[in-house]
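Morning. Coffee machine broken again, so started the prediction first thing and wrote up yesterday's gels while waiting. Chain of 306 residues, entered below exactly as on the submission form.
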Amino acid sequence: MKVCLETVLNVSLNDKQWDWTEAMETWIIETQEIPTNPSVQKEWGEILMKKKIGRELTFVRDEDNARLKPIQTKESCAWLNALPCKNVGTLLDDNTLRICMGLRLGCDICQPFTCPCGERIDSKGLHPLCCQKSSGRFFRHSEVNNIIKRALATIDVPSILEPTGMAREDGKRPDGATIIPWSCGQVLIWDFTCVDTFAKSYVKQTRCTPGAAAEQASVRKINKYKNLTSTGMHFLPFATETMGTWCGKAKEWTRDVGKKLATKSGNYRAKDFLTQNISLAVQRGNAASILGALPSDKNMDEIFYL
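Came back before lunch.
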């Protein structure tokens, strides 16, 4: 190989230039990480990019730092990889796409206005993502639960939404449950939630650790359903964030279901399609939350920034 390179490049490669071991030692000192698949150039570049981002990109606002971390995760990018097709429901309308990209990039998406709760909303439009009075957020909850239900049905696991006879201690029911056993003779019950990455109670954690808010929400859900899990039910806390990150339990379950979907359908990309659909539902929920908080104004001047 060395002789071939010297012949093609018309240069003489000395031993130091050809020392793979020394090159790897230098790489490890600089990056402290080795690619999983060294033959893929993309993985080497990703390591350098992560180091560069972590070392050089910092922002004054906590919200901007909290945005930078999540958008580097696989789940938060899934909706961008979905083929836009109206026949399968993956096409975003122009206004929804504008809002979703504005939130992702930190751009201004609207003129300042007052939320129905009385809070003054700036041009970034972040407040409706966590506002209890924004009607649009209910769409996301319903849509993701329907996606989970359809995915289970595809692998021949029937389920029902808001099952009767299964209530936690405060009387609230889970979002869904399988009718037949899911694993180890246990039926599966799940509860979906989407917490705001930029909420004041989370932003200090999410600015440092992507998915921190989703993990906290997952733990809370598990504690709330202890009375049901103690009776022999398998509980799935499907927690996501508005910026697209998922909790570990949700990722693990999606991988498991994705494999079964691929086996059932013969399409090795089945898991990716499931992830993309859930990711799209989260993004549509973000846009619906903001649009649901907008005031009614005939001339629309105070609503839209673009």
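The first strand starts at residue 113 and ends at 114. Going to sketch it on the whiteboard this afternoon.
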